[in-house]
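Subject: two folds for Thursday's group meeting

Dear M.,

Sorry for the delay on this. The cluster queue was jammed most of the week, so I only got both jobs back this morning. I'm pasting them in the order they finished. Each block is the input sequence followed by the predicted structure tokens. Could you check whether the formatting survives your parser before we put anything on slides? The first protein is the one we discussed after the seminar.
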Amino acid sequence: MAKQRIVYAPIDRPDVEVLVDDAWCPGELRAWTQHDDDTWTADVQYRPPGERSSFIATFTAADVRADTVDRSHGRGVGEQ
């Protein structure tokens, strides 16, 4: 059972990058989970290079980093 879970609303999801097959892929952080052994995992929606579809997967904290590119265009409240 998780000790703690932080879930982000769609408008508040931070941009991150996740390590997939030795490549950093852009994504949106959906949630952090702290486990009983005090490790953290992240649920991230990401898109691998060359793919048209995105995926949701769980990553260890070591495989997640802040994104250096602002990819939030179109996610703001009231934007058309």
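Second protein, same layout:
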Amino acid sequence: MIKENKKIERRKLSEEIIQFILISLMIGIFVSAVLYTTSMSIANVYLDNHNIRLEEMQEVVLSDWVRTICFVAGIVIFISLFLFCFGEKILYLISIIHGVEALQKNEMNFVIALEGNDELTELAQSINYLSKSQRELKEQEDRIREERENLIRSLSHDIRTPLTSILAYSEYIKDKEEVSQEEIKSYIQLMQSKAEQIKMLTDQLLNTKNEEYEVLENGKLFIEQMAMEWKSLLEDQFECRMDYEQCDDFRTLCSAQELYRIFDNLSSNIEKYAQPQEVVELKIKTEDGKLVIIQRNHVRTTISAAVESHNIGLKNVKQIAEKYGGEIEVTCAQGMFEIQISILIGV
């Protein structure tokens, strides 16, 4: 409704041009007439003062000459006034043309100043709107591309952890001379669990499956199972100590896959950066409506250059924690690394 009112109130450029022409024409005619009258009066006074008498033909010629000169002067004044009045519109039109050229070159950081209230103003406004829309669209595309790249980088990192576990389990079974059926069944179940985890991550990566949230009725049991799996991955290289006595049973709505990712990243960072054969502590507790996971380990004195930075893993954990209204705190002092993860729980 407001736009319609603006269109009704907007002056037409053609009307402004006609107005400029009429004003310039009237002033030109007036000045030409004044010049003719004044010039003829001056000529007559001059002739009278010098007692000069012109013949009829000479008077006609003089009158025609003065009229012609005054007419030319009127035309010059008309053109000058019209260009002066319309010059701003011409300059404004040139700035609009420059804006269109910039738009063609995908230069979106420009704004045409809005002047007047006619079709040129409306055109400039439309170009500014188009430029702004294109700029916002490009920013949105860049943001989506960056988020997509971060997601791919994050999930690719998390896929490696269960894949490494599968390789480790299969290598263990292959190298061990005698393996009982119970051990084989246990490791197959573990590998199947990790394979399903990889499938869920790849589905999320390819957007073929929406993230599933479920209500954990027995949250403590679920956390204990993941903690035991965390221990099974690390106990061959580290002395693992777990403490979840302060973890009360809880019920919450969450994605089990994301909780798996947290523990996978924790175990992965231990394998890469913790000092072998040293104590690795995992403490899980509930307090103030939060699930708190604390992991401590001694930092490895020498880290191979082939080992990638653990920033991606920490970023993944941070994103998941923040998604559930939580946070992470990381400290490293005197060779001891500690990460504390807090997640809001409750339905």
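Two things I noticed about the second structure. The mean pLDDT is 79. The helical segments are 2-9, 13-49, 56-104, 119-175, 181-206, 219-234, 256-273, 311-323.

Cheers,
T.
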